[in-house]
Amino acid sequence: MIDIYYVEDDENISQAVKGFLEQHGYQVVVCPTIAEAKQAFQNACPTLALIDWNMPDGNGNMLCQWIRSHWKELPVIFLTVRSDSCDIVSGFQNGADDYVVKPFELEVLLSRIRALLRRTGDVSKQYFSCGTISLDRKRSLVLCDSEEISLSPAEYQLLNYLLQNKGKTVTRAALLEKVWDSNGNYVNDNTLTVTMKRLREKLHQPSCLKTVRSIGYRMEDVE
To answer: Helices 34-43 and 60-70, interaxial angle, to 10°?
Structure first.
């Protein structure tokens, strides 16, 4: 399933676009504010983002800059009224891939989406996120509150595995096996405790990283 985040505050427009795209096999989440869009991104990375230029709490360019700082290769299409089209140039400088001028035909929007996804493919699988933490597996890059975090190989693998299993409790035994034993490095249980402590410190004690007493750990979205 191709997931699209549609950032649009006009309910009539958003519901028309959502209904049309879902008829063509897309899953669409509508975000009526930039703040809600950021929350959605922190929960999961979509396949593509549709962003209206004028939003009640900012403009699409601001959101695009924020997206590009975390999810560099995510496809982004701006939707704009004709009077704003000159401003779209700055949007491309901040990483937008295409734009469609309102009012637009739904078939035109669909063709733009399909064309863009043919070029980019589905890059969402290379990204993990939870709360203010995001991980780009292609670039081995970890960000926390937009700050790039330098991790040791074991810390990175530990975070990567927990994010892959977000929402699930991962046992200490499973982590020891996946992070260390799979590489032929047999270590004792205390190594995991120390590595987790260092990881939490580097990520500024994130509330989304939970300890499940006597069992293991779990990454989960925080409302």
So the answer is: 20
